[in-house]
Amino acid sequence: MKKLISLTVSAALLLAPIAYTINAPALNLKVDAVSAASEEATAKPEATPKATAKPAATPKATEKPAATKKPAATPKATAKPAATAKPAATAKPAATAKPATTAKPAATAKPAATAKPVTVQQDVYQDGVYVAYGDAYSKGTEGAKVTIKDGKIASIDLLRTSPKLIDRNVRENYSGLWAAYGLMKDRLLGKTRVGAAAVDAVSGATRSSNGWKLSVDRAFERALKVKPADATYFEGDIMGIDPQGKYAVFATYDAAKLTAVKLYPLTTSGDFVDEKTYTAEQTAAIAAITPVLLANGSSAQPVAGFEAESKAAIQAFWDAEQNALINNTSAYVDGFYSSYGTARSVGVERADIVIRNGKLVDVKLYRLGSNLVDRGATAYAEVVKANAPMTAKLLANGSYLANYDEKVDGISGATESSHGWNQAVERAYEKALKVPAEGQYFEGKFAGVDNQNKVLLLVDIAPDKVSGIKVSLFAADGKIIADDKLTPEQKTVVGLLTAGLLEQGVDLTDVPGQEVLSKAAKAALTDALTNGSKVQGTYKDGTFTAFGDAYDKGTNKADVTLRNGKIVNVALSRVGMNMVDLGKAAYAEVQKAIPQLTTSFLAAGTREGVQSVDAISGATSSSNALKAAVDRAYGKAEVVETDKAAYFDGIFIGASADKSVNVMVTVKNNIPVLMLVYYLDGAGKVKTPYLLTPAELAVKTEIESTSSNNGLHKYGYRPAAFGANDAEKDVSAKAVEAIKAALEAAGK
What we know:
By secondary structure, the protein is an alpha+beta fold. The protein has helices at 7-15, 178-188, 193-197, 206-223, 280-296, 307-324, 381-397, 415-431, 488-504, 515-531, 588-604, 607-611, 620-637, 694-705, 726-746; strands at 20-21, 54-56, 94-97, 128-133, 141-149, 152-161, 236-241, 247-253, 258-265, 335-340, 348-356, 359-368, 444-449, 455-462, 465-473, 542-547, 555-563, 566-575, 650-655, 661-668, 671-679.
C-alpha cells in the first residue's frame, strides 16, 4: 500500500470545521398517481336509502389540507408545476328539500362534455400537472394525470381505479383494457383539449377510453387560467373514499350544486360490500348518515350512535367533493412519494405514501438498518410491533401528525421510530407540494451508503449546505466498525475522507492508496444527498424479483434490491422447472457465471450499466437472461411506468403448489398467447409422455390446443379449473395454479 499522508496533516484538516454548498447532479422528478378497476360491465351496487334533503346554493368554505411546514429560505428547489389559481370559498349545499331518486347511469353512459374553447391559445391554460377523474361506477373510475404545457398534453399517465381509488395493476383489470393504455396514451400525447376530445376510443375498451377522455377534458378545465363563471362542479357521479378505506361516496353534481349522495361500505381489499350481505348495523348507518351528508356535505356533524362511521363517511364525501370541484385547491400533486426520517448509526425510518387531494390514501412504513436496507421482521421487536398501529394512526389522521408529541402520537416502546416515520411522511408531503418549498434539500441528518456497503456517512444538512459528516467503515461481516475498534491506518483514512468530503464534496480527490474507499465515500455522499433531496426519484426503493426467459429446463431469477435507482444488493439464481434453486445441480458454466455476474452487476450499479456487462463465456444464454431479469426488476420498480402493460414480453414458467405441474407461457405484445404443459416427477424432472395418465393428457391437450400464438390465450385471463371428470378437474386445478404462477412471474 502506498504511504499514507501523515496524521499531523489529517489532524490539521479536521480541526477547522468546513461547510460547502451542495452541488449535486439534478434529479428527475417523476411521480405516480392512483387508480384501478375492471372494464367488465357489471351491475352497480343497488340503491341504498336516499337522503331527505335537497341542497341550496349556500356558500361554505371548502376544507383544505394543512400546509406542510416549510424550511428557512434557501436557494430555490428543482422546479415543480406552478400552482393553479385558488378560488374563493366554494359553494356547498345546505338542506332544504328531498331530491328525486337519481337513476344510476348505464355502464357506458357519459356526461355531457364540459365546454371547450374553439381555439387553443398559449395563455389560456396554466402549465402544470393536473389529476382528474371520469364518472364513477361500481368497479371504480378512470382518471388521468396530465402535464399541460403551452396548451398541449406534454405527458400523461392513464389511471384505472378500484372503488378505493388507488392505482390497480393493469393485469388486474379486464383483459380488453390491457392494450388500451398504450394506444390511448399515444393518441392523446401532444394533443390540445379539442384534439384530445376528437381522439377515437380503443375498440374493446370504449367505456374506459371515454372515461380517460373525460378525465383529460376535466384536467384541461382545471388548468384554465380563468375558470367558468357558471360552473363550480363537474357534472356526473363523482367518487371519493376516506383515508382508511371504510366508505365510498358517490356524489352526484350538476354544474352548480350537489343533487344526490349514495354511501357504500368497502371491504378490506377496497371493493364494495355486496348489499345482500349488509349487516343490520351497516344498513342503519347508511340510512342515518346519507341524509346528513346530502344536507351538510363535508360540514356534517357525526350522527349519534354512528360517530366512527360518520367520520369516515364525511371524509369520503370531502374527497368526492374535491374530485368534483373544477377549481380543486389541494396544495399537493397526487401521486407516490417516499422519504426518510432522521438518520442514526443504527439505521433510519422510511415511509412510502400515496396522496390524493392532500390526504393519505396509502402508507407503508419501513425500518432500515445501518446498510439502509429494510430490516423487516429482523428489526427490533418493539419497532416491528409499532408498524401496524403507527400506519393506522397516520391513515386515520389523513396526513402526518402535526406537532408530533411522543406521549400522544408515539407508539409505546418505539417512540423514536414513531417520530422518524411521522417525519418521513411529513417530508414526503413536502415533495408533493405544487408550489415547492424553498431549498433543494431538507434540513437534518441523512445517511448514505455506497452500493457495495463499504462506507456509511451521516451527513448534516443545513439550508442547502453540508455542515458536518461522520464517516464509518463496514467490516467484512457487514457490521459497522466502532470508532474505538478502528486500526490506526483506518483512523487515518477516515480522517482524510471526512476532511476531503467536507471540502470537496462528491468531487473528492482520491486518498492515495485508498482509491476503493474514496470511490465508496463519494458514492455514499451522493446517496445521502439523494436521500435528503426534496425531489422524488424515478424508482421505488425495495427488493424486486423478476425472471429471464425460460425454456424446458428452467429459468433464471434475479432478486434486485434498489435504493435511489442504484443496485445495493442482487441475488442471482438458476431454478429448475419446479421453480426451486438448482444450486450445485445447475450447469457448471452457470454455477461459475453467477458469482461473476453478481459482482459485475453490483459494480455496474444501474439499469443501463447492467445491460453493458459482458456475458460470461460458456454461459451466454444465462448471462443474457439474468441481465433481462434485472431490467424487468427495474421495470417493476418504476414510480411512473414507461410502458403501462399487463405483462413483460418473453417466456415464463410457473409451478403448481405441489411442484407436480409446470406451465410455460409465452407473452407477445404484452399478452399471453401460448401455453405448454409439463408434468414433473418428485425430483423436478419432466416426465416422458408415455408415463402420463389419461387425465394429464386431456388437460395438456386442452391447454395447448387453445394456444393461438397470436391472440390472448383462453386461459390467459382469469383461468379456472375444468374437466369432464374428477380426475381431469384435479389435474386442471394444479395446471391452473401453475398458469397463475407463470403469469405472476411475467407480470409488471
